[in-house]
Amino acid sequence: MARFGMVIDTVRCVGCMDCVVACKTENSVPEGFNRDWIAYDVTGKYPTPHMEIRSERCNHCDAPPCVSCCPTGASHVHDVGGVVLVDADKCIGCKGCVASCPYGARFIHPDGYADKCTFCIHRVEQGLLPACVSVCPTRCMHFGDLDDPNSEVSTLLASRNHHVLQPDAGTKPRIFYLT
Amino acid sequence: MHELTITRHNELIDPLLHIWSWQIPVYLFLGGLVAGIMIISGYLVLQGQYKKNVFSCFYLPHISLVLLSGGMGALFLDLEHKLYFWRLFTTFQVTAPMSWGSWLLMIVYPALWVNTLIRIPERVQGKVPLFDRWSAELNKRPALIRNIGIANMLLGTLLGMYTGVLLSSFGARPLWNSAMLWMLFLVSGLSAAAAFVHLVTTDEDEREMLAKADNAFLTLELFVFGGFITGLLTSSRVHIEAVHLLLDGPYAPVFWVFVIGTGILLPLTIQLLAVNHKVKHTPVAPLMVLAGGLILRFVIVYAGQFSRWT
User: Which chain A residues have a beta carbon less than 8 Å from that of B309?
Assistant: First the structure.
């Protein structure tokens, strides 16, 4: 079974927010909410500051706390690619999954259920790329099977320095940032 | 320098998590209070107090049912997808404390209800003949009554533990992520329950006994607080930062004044004087304990949402 993940090249990302707009359009994300966003992370001090620009979203963790804490099974790991999804018809809106996410990736949809990035699984199952990846003008976003050693994401991870967000939280995220 | 700017501003998530408002602290407080009352009530049943005309055996199980329903009502108000709440009972998710809690409450309600049948209040006697008959049958079986007492103590303990475990299972919130939290909420629930019975009982002996018990619970709570704080202070950076929210951060004034000061130390002093017959028993000390227990839940829930991995 595939294990989908994303590799984002922070050297190429310019923070244009095309990915954000594409996601909102593709998934009809309600006004005032975001499934993905841009982070500007500045460290160091003059004259050698460093800025990393990242396109962030749900990390579709290998050890997702949002799934293990869900009392109804609404948050679940999908059969295809191990993507973490929410079944709106099972969600009671207890917000436990929102509290359990160290990335703040979830929000409560105005209709009352927990919502977040799906890796555009409806597109991926048709052989397409997630909307955010497909529109990126700098081609800094890559999507594929992390378990396939010949996939683009695996070869990038094998050849470049990378990091994940909040590794100490123990969630084993599947979005990697090339540096 | 480390400066992080994000373009996201999701409601209830940014700039800081604030998904849970007054409903969850009230639910946790009432759940803890009922847990404590179940333990005390079960203990009194085991002691054979139900054979006497004392307040606790007449009214505590009935009051518990009302308080627990109030807590469940608060929880229901917090749900964002209210009409789907029944989904909780179509599955059992072994890794989800909330699922355990939902099913636990399904056992707690019948246990409380059976406890109400041991002694039916005089003003209700004769109004529901079926209940009178069941009560009479129960009273022919003292071993069964003892088992009801044990079941109430056991389920009360599990309920009190659950109110803490629910929060401590959220690893993403460092302040809650402590193995001491269930003990803190259980002891606080016992203390609040003892204060509640102390406050409402009309029986002098019960009042005296519960005041002494509350002194023991309050003292124990201070030790548990010590363990809770020390555990976080000796943990990772995010846990140390989280506990400083209570010690000298934005929640410190409320924590030190209303949780530790007027919630534990002051009522403990007053009740120690009262049980040593230096001052009379008044409602002041138990009211302080109850208010302190409620504020404790508010502080922990709000500060916990403030704490995060950075």
Answer: 102, 166, 168-169
CB B100 within 8 A of CB B63: no
Nearest to A5 by CA among A79, A76, A82, A105: A82
Domains and CATH numbers, chain B: 23-306 (1.20.1630.10)
Write the pLDDT tens digit of every residue in B247-306.
999 999 999 999 999 999 999 999 999 999 999 989 999 999 999 999 999 999 999 999
- Say which of A42, A99, A102 has its CB closest to residue B309: A102
**Cβ-defined contact of A72 to B20 (cutoff 8 Å):** no
* pLDDT score recorded for residue B5: 87
Whether residue A68 and residue B96 make contact (CB cut-off 8 A), yes or no, is: yes
Distances, alpha carbon A7 to alpha carbons A4, A122, B78, in Å: 10, 20, 37
CB < 8 Å to A65, chain B: 170-172
Domains of chain A, start order: 4-178 (3.30.70.20)
Q: Mapping DSSP to helix (H, G, I), strand (E, B) and coil, where does residue A9 land?
A: strand
User: Per this entry, what is the length of chain B?
Assistant: 310
The ipTM assigned to this model is: 0.91
Asked whether the beta carbons of residue A69 and residue B81 sit closer than 8 angstroms, the reply is no
Segment B15-35 shows an average pLDDT of 96
State which H helix or E strand residue B197 sits in.
helix B181-200
**How many angstroms separate the CA of residue A92 from the nearest CA in chain B?**
5
Q: Give the range among A115-119, B99-103, B206-210 with minimum mean pLDDT.
A: B206-210
Beta strand pairing call for B2-6 and A37-43: antiparallel
